[in-house]
């Protein structure tokens, strides 16, 4: 429920954290979408790791003697792992600033207390307009696949049948991740922030500010609008049916610090389609919520260049998907003349210099 409510706030009041984090387009050569039939669910073959794990090393971006150290983040991760963060904590302590991943800050013109009164409207807006049920708004073949996956990961929740496809799909995805031994909980941010505060290191949070003056009216308008969320629904089903094993393998690769595997494992992502369902709505266009991935990318790159110019050492976090995508953030930094080295490359260089 917490995840759905957060997603609902993001969607209804503009697109915040889960979807406002920029997502790369699918890589060229990505696997095609599964045929729209009741495909068998692929059992999770990869067992997720547990216990103390080092996580990946740091990417090094440099120009002259100024360095930006980047920790690539990933979600989901193994639920029962404990991240060994000592190296990251030392790097933060030796830096002059911490640069966070880009995000969206919503300004709604209402305080927390008044905002609580919007929750009933938000819950209502999560449902399909005109009292329609899920089987009324998605193709029959997709609905058959949904029923099989719902029985496996959610159970006999009848209320979710009234939800819009995007909300139902994301709830299903969340439940599938948790039942597969993984979690969306952020293991990195609390450690990074507490370490920065402990050593009085400045935290830079590149935020795209979006303002909605009348959230009550925006929610009412959203409630009456249909969303083009069929692609989001279909791609989420595809990913749950066929990609849980690969997601577990990526989670393991991050946990044990296997950077070559992080590079090589394909990263399919339904969130681009899910984000488009909201940002393509009439309400989003009226509010000026367009081109979010491009705007967030530009915002972060400007912040990174400023940090590199002004600090001898800066520590940063950034999703691995944004870093390693073709024409991703690291490629953009290379194009600007910065030297970019992966954790495995810096380790090889250090060994050669000894």
Give an account of the 3D structure:
The chain has helices at 2-12, 17-20, 86-93, 112-116, 119-125, 134-137, 140-153, 165-179, 189-198, 215-224, 230-242, 244-256, 259-264, 271-279, 282-286, 292-310, 320-324, 329-335, 343-353, and strands at residues 51-53, 59-63, 66-73, 77-78, 81-83, 97-99, 103-107, 182-183, 202-204, 207-211, 313-319, 339-341. Residues 1-44, 112-117 and 350-354 have low confidence and may be disordered. Helices cover 50% and strands 14% of the residues. It is of the alpha/beta class and 354 residues long.
Write the layout of secondary structure elements.
Layout: H1 2-12, H2 17-20, E1 51-53, E2 59-63, E3 66-73, E4 77-78, E5 81-83, H3 86-93, E6 97-99, E7 103-107, H4 112-116, H5 119-125, H6 134-137, H7 140-153, H8 165-179, E8 182-183, H9 189-198, E9 202-204, E10 207-211, H10 215-224, H11 230-242, H12 244-256, H13 259-264, H14 271-279, H15 282-286, H16 292-310, E11 313-319, H17 320-324, H18 329-335, E12 339-341, H19 343-353
Parallel strand pairs: 1-5, 3-11, 6-9, 6-11, 7-10
Antiparallel strand pairs: 2-3, 2-12, 4-8
Helix pairs in contact: 1-8, 3-9, 5-10, 7-8, 7-11, 8-11, 11-14
